[in-house]
Design a protein that fits this description.
The chain is built from 27 helices and three strands. Strands 1-3-2 form a three-stranded antiparallel sheet. Helix 12 runs antiparallel to helix 13 and helix 14 packs antiparallel against helix 15. It is globular.
């Protein structure tokens, strides 16, 4: 915390004198400074209530919604001092000041719950609402929000840590402790904190009899953890044991065990065993004669195509990918259809069958409402074909692939493609074509992504760039930025600017 800077802004000379004569290592150094600064604040400002109420809100504060709940006029003195800033649609509070006035007070959390009630529900809003409900000891609502939010997370997301905080606050406070423990294990898995995940998964086991289906489900979580952690021998033994107990009784658990085993064998390069596991899943699904199960069948067939592709059995891979394509088309499943087309395109590119690859990409171009992760893959594959043909339009496709790939990673924690590699390729094209502005934009994009999302401390120098790059550089300096979004690359720039401002 920058207490010295805050003391200077407040004109708190007695605090500045204290900082000069006292060493940081001294006992209660920080506590005494905080007390002195709070004393200055209470004397200097007659109304700290609104500031304290807003301090408990962690997400960027939307000024238009805040006005419905809080007396924003009460912040006027802080705005004049530059400790509170109105930037675009947001209220930004100096972090040291916010930390200083933060209080765990029930009325403040209730106000925050009212504030968040005006927003459309999404993962971040649900996580914040769950947090404030748990802080006022409204455990039932906190639990319901926690579970709904956690069940929508499929990869690394910035609200995972907050959800874990909420979940651990709920321990011993809710009836469905087994679900809570299992979900905490899942969240720690997302963070790759395997020791903590295993701790919670093992606690779930004590709630069920060994013959209970849910007991096998908990064992499956542990086996998957051991697989993800790289303990293949242990995971294989556990998965085979679960499979022997589940086969013929609990098809869903048997299928999941076989799917994890197929991935394990694929990692080990044992393609025959991987194929065998997927074939077993296929037999289970086909025996049900349920049209809805066709989607699962298509997914398994597609996975078999991937197994054969990895094993360099390209003719068999093509056969299974084509069959998956046929089933997805029959089901009118756009996402599955797009996945199969992408896989076929990739297969044809890797086998240098570029005419067939172009046919697949032409089909992909006609697909509407393509999911962003698959669209990123499509752009990347299209760029590779164009690059081989010597078409400089490849640069734009690499750039769009990188932008969409980054957005998918940032929003969902998924690695659809290697987006940094896509940016590198686009930058290489831009430099070769002497497009300095485009090359500068890409350099700035890559640098700021490393700085903001991965903590890479690298100086971002001024380079020739277009309005995209200039907008990011302005946001880095804390200046107001107005930016229109016209395409995927603009969307990535906009999201980065928003994250910089907040």
């Amino acid at each position: 915390m920058n207490y010295e800077k805050l003391a200077k802004i407040l004109g708190a000379n007695e605090v500045l004198d204290y900082i000069k004569v006292v060493k940081e290592g001294e006992i209660d150094f920080e506590k005494k400074i905080r007390e002195k600064l709070l004393n200055v604040l209470s004397k200097k400002f007659s109304n700290l209530k609104v500031l304290k109420e807003l301090a408990v809100i962690d997400l960027p504060i939307n000024i238009n919604i805040a006005k419905k709940v809080y007396d924003i006029e009460a912040l006027k003195d802080f705005i004049e001092l530059g400790l509170v800033e109105l930037r675009g649609d947001y209220i930004l509070i100096d972090e040291t000041l916010r930390d200083l006035v933060w209080e765990n007070k029930e009325s403040y959390h209730r106000k925050a719950i009212e504030y968040y009630s005006y927003f459309e529900e999404n993962i971040e809003i649900m996580a914040e609402r769950a947090y404030h409900h748990v802080m006022i000891q409204d455990y039932e609502n906190a639990f319901q929000l926690f579970m709904r939010c956690a069940n929508e997370i499929y990869g690394r997301h910035r609200c995972v840590e907050k959800l874990i905080f909420v979940g651990e606050k709920l321990l011993g406070k809710v009836k469905e402790e087994d679900r809570l423990l299992g979900t905490l294990g899942n969240l720690y898995m997302v963070l790759k904190k395997y020791r903590e995940a295993e701790h919670y998964y093992r606690q779930v086991l004590r709630f069920y009899d060994e013959k209970d289906r849910r007991y096998l489900g908990a064992l499956l979580n542990l086996a998957n953890l051991h697989y993800v952690r790289g303990d293949y021998k242990k995971a294989e033994e556990e998965l085979k044991d679960i499979l022997s107990r589940a086969i013929g009784k609990y098809d869903d658990i048997a299928e999941k065990s076989l799917l994890i085993l197929s991935s394990l064998y694929l990692d080990l390069g044992d393609y025959e065993k991987a194929e065998s596991c997927l074939m077993d899943v296929l037999r289970i699904e086909q025996s049900k004669k349920d049209r809805e199960k066709l989607r699962t069948v298509a997914s398994i067939v597609n996975n078999l195509g991937y197994v054969y592709s990895r094993a360099k059995k390209f003719e068999r891979a093509e056969k299974f990918y084509m069959e998956a394509l046929r089933i997805y088309n029959e089901l009118d499943d756009i996402e599955g259809f797009t996945t199969a087309l992408n896989n076929l395109s990739s297969l044809y590119i890797s086998t240098q069958n570029f005419d067939k690859a172009k046919d697949m990409l032409s089909m992909l171009e006609k697909v509407s409402d393509m999911p962003p992760d698959l669209k990123a893959k499509y752009y990347f594959l299209k760029a590779k074909v164009l690059e081989r043909e010597g078409n400089n339009e490849a640069m734009n496709y690499y750039l769009k692939a990188g932008a969409l790939g980054f957005l998918v990673f940032r929003n969902f924690g998924m690695n659809a493609i290697n987006y940094m590699h896509a940016f590198d390729k686009a930058e290489e094209f831009a430099n070769n074509l002497n497009l300095k502005d485009v090359a500068g934009d890409i350099f700035i994009l890559k640098s700021v992504i490393g700085k903001v999302y991965f903590g890479i401390k690298k100086e971002i120098s001024n380079v020739d760039c277009s309005e995209r790059g200039k907008a990011i550089l302005k946001a880095l300096k804390g200046e107001k930025v107005y930016f229109d979004v016209k395409d995927e690359v603009d969307s990535a720039v906009y999201v980065i600017i928003k994250d910089l401002i907040s």
